[in-house]
Amino acid sequence: MTDTPQRTRPLRVLAAMSGGVDSAVAAARAAEAGHDVTGVHLALSANPQSFRTGARGCCTIEDSRDARRAADVIGIPFYVWDLADRFREDVVEDFVAEYEAGRTPNPCLRCNEKIKFAALLDKALALGFDAVCTGHYAKVVTLPDGTRELHRASDLAKDQSYVLGVLDDRQLAHAMFPLGDTVTTKEEIRAEAERRGLAVAKKPDSHDICFIADGDTQGFLARRLGKAEGDIVDEAGNRLGTHEGAYGFTIGQRKGLRIGTPAPDGKPRYVLDISPVTNTVTVGPAASLDVTALTAVKPRWCGAAPSGPGTYTAQLRAHGEETEVTAELVDGELSVHFTEPVRGVAPGQAIVLYDGTRVVGSATIAATRRATAGAA
């Protein structure tokens, strides 16, 4: 069992260094293991800011300098690669288009799929590197026959395998996650960084969406898509209020509805459906959010595709809990049934299937079936 593509020789490793503590320690561990490591910082913004705002945002000039200083301390070569155009097209524009279509995307999955383990990996392989190393908390297991599996990190509290569920066999064959094999807390990672003399040891983590530095997703979308007033209605179609753009809502949302009229039972109401065609947001009680089944498209497998129906656990959000499901491929789409109803499931989200700690694969939710009438 190993976390590198091969054990027989030192590898040429390209370490993606964001300027944060996790990627710096990952690069240091790879170098300490005897690999020939080169650090690279991805310039993903066409207009990087000089300084980040607290723990928000990334890919700033400050982050690039922090990554360079870490590489100097580790003693590895360092470069900055400009992937801003590719990132804008594959991640930012996709994010905006998905919200405009009434769906809820996860840009971190798209970035891993399209940037770190596609654009970056392709360039790395073309330059003769064997693997791309990142600071993700996940584990790669190599079986006796040489095939590789993606598993949850040893420290389940830090596990990031959900956002890596888009990796296919080829990408997994060249992935290295040095932080995933050890049960360490973030405090221990910071202490290790300090012992190694890395100045990022106390740098705050980046939160929320990296290209929305102020954390105001609704404001970002409004600037991109413009305001478009529409109706907020109940399940019977009664008009309860208005909004300034259906793209500013997501299924399961409770706060920010700005409905003046209380529900007849006095209980909170939640977003149940978003119709971009009519620019209408439908709200209702929590019980109407119960989902019993879903259909997901564009499946990606971390290994061979399942040959028939199977029982798995599924994760629906980056920090969500697992739930038991049965799933099978039907005409190229993933049909999933939940053992117990779940809530807050939105089209556009990713569903990641697990067999124990092993990541089986992922797909993008296209439609849901509710315990009550209607499908999202």
Automatic annotation (TrEMBL):
<keyword id="KW-0694">RNA-binding</keyword>
<feature type="domain" description="tRNA-specific 2-thiouridylase MnmA-like C-terminal">
    <location>
        <begin position="292"/>
        <end position="365"/>
    </location>
</feature>
<comment type="similarity">
    <text>Belongs to the MnmA/TRMU family.</text>
</comment>
<dbReference type="GO" id="GO:0000049">
    <property type="term" value="F:tRNA binding"/>
</dbReference>
<dbReference type="InterPro" id="IPR046885">
    <property type="entry name" value="MnmA-like_C"/>
</dbReference>
<feature type="domain" description="tRNA-specific 2-thiouridylase MnmA-like central">
    <location>
        <begin position="219"/>
        <end position="284"/>
    </location>
</feature>
<feature type="binding site">
    <location>
        <position position="135"/>
    </location>
    <ligand>
        <name>ATP</name>
    </ligand>
</feature>
<dbReference type="InterPro" id="IPR004506">
    <property type="entry name" value="MnmA-like"/>
</dbReference>
<keyword id="KW-0819">tRNA processing</keyword>
<feature type="active site" description="Cysteine persulfide intermediate">
    <location>
        <position position="210"/>
    </location>
</feature>
<feature type="site" description="Interaction with tRNA">
    <location>
        <position position="349"/>
    </location>
</feature>
<keyword id="KW-0808">Transferase</keyword>
<dbReference type="GO" id="GO:0005524">
    <property type="term" value="F:ATP binding"/>
</dbReference>
<keyword id="KW-0067">ATP-binding</keyword>
<feature type="binding site">
    <location>
        <position position="42"/>
    </location>
    <ligand>
        <name>ATP</name>
    </ligand>
</feature>
<dbReference type="GO" id="GO:0103016">
    <property type="term" value="F:tRNA-uridine 2-sulfurtransferase activity"/>
</dbReference>
<feature type="binding site">
    <location>
        <begin position="16"/>
        <end position="23"/>
    </location>
    <ligand>
        <name>ATP</name>
    </ligand>
</feature>
<keyword id="KW-0820">tRNA-binding</keyword>
<feature type="site" description="Interaction with tRNA">
    <location>
        <position position="136"/>
    </location>
</feature>
<feature type="region of interest" description="Interaction with tRNA">
    <location>
        <begin position="158"/>
        <end position="160"/>
    </location>
</feature>
<feature type="active site" description="Nucleophile">
    <location>
        <position position="111"/>
    </location>
</feature>
<dbReference type="InterPro" id="IPR023382">
    <property type="entry name" value="MnmA-like_central_sf"/>
</dbReference>
<dbReference type="Pfam" id="PF20258">
    <property type="entry name" value="tRNA_Me_trans_C"/>
</dbReference>
<dbReference type="InterPro" id="IPR014729">
    <property type="entry name" value="Rossmann-like_a/b/a_fold"/>
</dbReference>
<keyword id="KW-1015">Disulfide bond</keyword>
<dbReference type="Pfam" id="PF20259">
    <property type="entry name" value="tRNA_Me_trans_M"/>
</dbReference>
<keyword id="KW-0963">Cytoplasm</keyword>
<keyword id="KW-0547">Nucleotide-binding</keyword>
<dbReference type="InterPro" id="IPR046884">
    <property type="entry name" value="MnmA-like_central"/>
</dbReference>
<protein>
    <recommendedName>
        <fullName>tRNA-specific 2-thiouridylase MnmA</fullName>
        <ecNumber>2.8.1.13</ecNumber>
    </recommendedName>
</protein>
<dbReference type="GO" id="GO:0005737">
    <property type="term" value="C:cytoplasm"/>
</dbReference>
<dbReference type="GO" id="GO:0002143">
    <property type="term" value="P:tRNA wobble position uridine thiolation"/>
</dbReference>
<dbReference type="Pfam" id="PF03054">
    <property type="entry name" value="tRNA_Me_trans"/>
</dbReference>
<comment type="function">
    <text>Catalyzes the 2-thiolation of uridine at the wobble position (U34) of tRNA, leading to the formation of s(2)U34.</text>
</comment>
